[in-house]
């Protein structure tokens, strides 16, 4: 099941936690850097879409667990 609350900020937090640049993630996921930028700015990142799904796979995360991990990373950054 895909967690509906996953956001572009969550995707960005996971990318940064994996120490990847937008360009490197784009290369690994087989998408353009513009695609990474686009989805990181979205208020909701639908993991059923091809781009975000492949980006999450490139980061090594999938599904609901990844969404909660991203929120934990964001929470740590904000503290």
Describe this structure in words.
Helix content is 67%, strand content 0%. Helix 1 (8-17) crosses helix 3 (33-41), helix 2 (22-29) crosses helix 3 and helix 2 crosses helix 4. The radius of gyration is 11 Å and the shape is globular. The model has no long low-confidence stretch (mean pLDDT 80). The chain has 79 residues and is mainly alpha-helical.
Report mean pLDDT, rounded to a whole number: 80
Total beta strand runs: 0
Shape: globular
What share of residues is helical? 55-70%
Enumerate the spans where pLDDT stays under 50 for 5 or more consecutive residues. none
| Helix and strand run | HHHHH
The biggest sheet, with number of strands, parallel, antiparallel or mixed sense and barrel status, is: none
Distinct helical segment count = 5
Give the percentage of residues in beta strands.
under 5%
Radius of gyration: 11 Å
Distance between the termini: 30 Å
- Class based on secondary structure composition and strand pairing: mainly alpha
């Amino acid at each position: 099941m895909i967690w509906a609350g996953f956001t572009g900020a969550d995707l960005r937090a996971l990318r940064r936690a994996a120490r990847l640049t937008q360009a490197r993630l784009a290369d690994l996921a087989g998408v353009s850097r513009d695609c990474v930028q686009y989805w990181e700015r979205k208020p909701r990142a639908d993991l059923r879409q091809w781009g975000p799904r492949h980006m999450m796979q490139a980061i090594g995360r999938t599904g609901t667990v990844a969404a909660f991990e991203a929120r934990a990373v964001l929470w740590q950054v904000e503290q």
